[in-house]
Structures are given as C-alpha cells and as structure tokens.
Target: TD and POZ domain-containing protein 5
Amino acid sequence: QTLYATNSEFFKSICDYAMVENEKGIYEIEVDEMPVPFKQMLSFILSGFIPDPFNYHMLRDLLIMASKYNVQTLKILCESYLIRMINIENSIDLIQLALTYNAKSLEKYTALFIKLYLKEIVHTQEFQCL
Model:
C-alpha cells in the first residue's frame, strides 16, 4: 500500500499486477544496476527522508532512480538539493544529468550558473571532455 501511494505509475502498476496475480500481493523486482540507490529510494518512499541529503553522488543516483521509476516527489527533492550544490566543477555533469532525465528545475538553475561562470567553466576538465 505504501508503494501504491508514491505517485509513481510504475509502482502503482506493479501493485495492481501483484494483487491480481497472487493473494498476498507480492511482486519481486530484479534490480541489476544501482542496488544501493534503489534501496535508498524505497527507504525514501517508506520514510519520506533522504538518508544523506548532502552527498552529491547519492543525490545524483537517486535522481536517476526517481526518474526511472517515476517517483516525482523524490526527483523534485533531489533536484532541489543538487541545485544548492552547483559549482564550477560539477556544472557540466549536472546540466547533462538534467537534460538526460528531464529535470527541469535543475536544468534551469544549472544553465543560469553556466551562463554566469562560463569563463571559469571552459577551463574545467569536464568542459574539455565535451
């Protein structure tokens, strides 16, 4: 029931399918890639909290999971925390993340940051690798 209430069409369809297919409503999900962020996403669904909201890499991975499984509240929260972490070194990574996973707020603020600090950003390794 908790997963059903996540505002995620993915989890709603799984819950509906599980209830039709078996009496216990149990459905097993295979998680091949990124099992730690997947567990953290489930933890967020159950608790409403992100375990370490100042861990850049964790937030990045959680945003990817939230986008993949359509957990919009988590995606928006991750965007919000990542916006606060934009800097010269990670701005290229964040704009690519935002564009890839349709993170509109993150895209907007990262693009503005890049515009303001373009002279410094062009000298970063991330920019050179584009």
